[in-house]
Design goal:
CATH topology: Translation Initiation Factor IF3
Number of domains: 1
Distance between the termini: 68 Å
Largest sheet: 4 strands, mixed
Strand content: 25-35%
Shape: elongated
Helix content: 10-25%
CATH superfamily: Hypothetical protein apc22750. Chain B
CATH class: Alpha Beta
Number of helices: 4
Order of helices and strands: HEHEEEHEHEEE
Radius of gyration: 25 Å
Strand order of the largest sheet: 1-3-2-4
Length: about 290
């Protein structure tokens, strides 16, 4: 009986190693990259997940005040114009702001699914002017896969760091998806905005400005809760809130201005997977913040 000739070199074994225990070179498709720090990677591994690669989603949109005619702030009450994405002069703009974020996010999720990932952690949304015109919305994060037989029906998305993600899992919660709350409000800046205020006295509240920013923040927070509820979330872990107030010339009344306030809430909707901890009956939607490790 003839013998098979012995192959030169080490004989390859399973799990990316030779049978003598030494490592073999990984193939290009086997190597993952991520935006995780060493501490985040260790925390995610400890929580039963492993990274499968960095994912990216992007969308470029034109952004303008479409649908706004005349001076919306001239006919509103002291609270400012309503900013629902469905019923206001700002509705087309607000819907575009939602759509652009969700489109970029959906493309990152599609890339995660293509890598057989179960979710994306450390999601960061970047918004910047595009050189050729318009605004670029970019979503970047690290796709992870669970080391278990229980898999989510669709990939989750979360802004949480690796450490905070691990805290959430250990506490009996799982992320459902990134949630947004966006609101716009405006008011005509005339004598009614600052009535009763003496600008030379100092240390006084400008009631009109307070009402404007208070209104737009409340509306954004309400929209965040609605977005999280649509994802089936029991609560929201809030990442942060941005507020921007801009001045623009009023096109209806000469030599006057309008104030536009835009508030954006971003957070991760979460669901409790330990059903034994649930209470009976309906529960209010909770907005909460996790303490970050330094």
């Amino acid at each position: 009986m003839t013998q098979e000739p012995k192959a030169h070199g080490r004989e390859a074994g399973p799990a990316g190693a030779h049978r003598d225990g030494s490592a073999r070179p990984r193939q290009a498709g086997d190597t993952w990259n991520s935006g995780l720090s060493a501490g985040e990677l260790a925390a995610i591994e400890d929580a039963g997940f492993e990274p499968v690669g960095q994912v990216l989603g992007t969308a470029v949109h034109t952004i303008g005040y479409s649908g706004v005619r005349g001076c919306p702030g001239a006919w509103t009450d002291d609270a400012g114009a309503p900013s629902s994405p469905w019923s206001s002069s700002f509705a087309p703009l607000v819907r575009t702001l939602y759509a652009a974020r969700r489109l970029a996010l959906s493309r990152a999720v599609a890339e995660c699914a293509a890598r057989t990932g179960d979710g994306i952690v450390g999601v960061r949304l970047r918004i910047a002017d595009f050189p050729a015109g318009g605004v670029e919305f970019t979503v970047l994060g690290t796709a992870v896969r669970a080391r278990s037989r229980i898999r989510p029906r669709r990939p989750f998305t979360s802004h949480l760091s690796g450490q905070d993600f691990a805290k959430l899992i250990r506490a009996g919660w799982v992320p459902a998806g990134l949630a947004f709350g966006i609101a716009l409000a405006t008011r005509h800046d005339d004598w009614r905005t600052s009535r009763g205020v003496s600008w030379t006295a100092g240390n006084q509240e400008v009631d009109g400005y307070t009402r404007l920013v208070g209104h737009v923040r409340r509306e954004a927070r309400n929209q965040l809760a609605l977005d999280a509820a649509e994802q089936g979330g029991d609560g929201v872990v809030v990442d942060g809130m941005e507020l921007e107030v801009r001045e623009r010339e009023c096109t209806t009344y000469g030599d006057t201005r309008d104030l536009d306030a835009e508030a954006v809430f971003v957070g991760t909707s979460v669901v409790r997977f330990d059903r034994s901890r649930r209470t009976t009956g309906p529960r209010p939607l909770t907005i909460m913040r996790l303490e970050r490790e330094h």
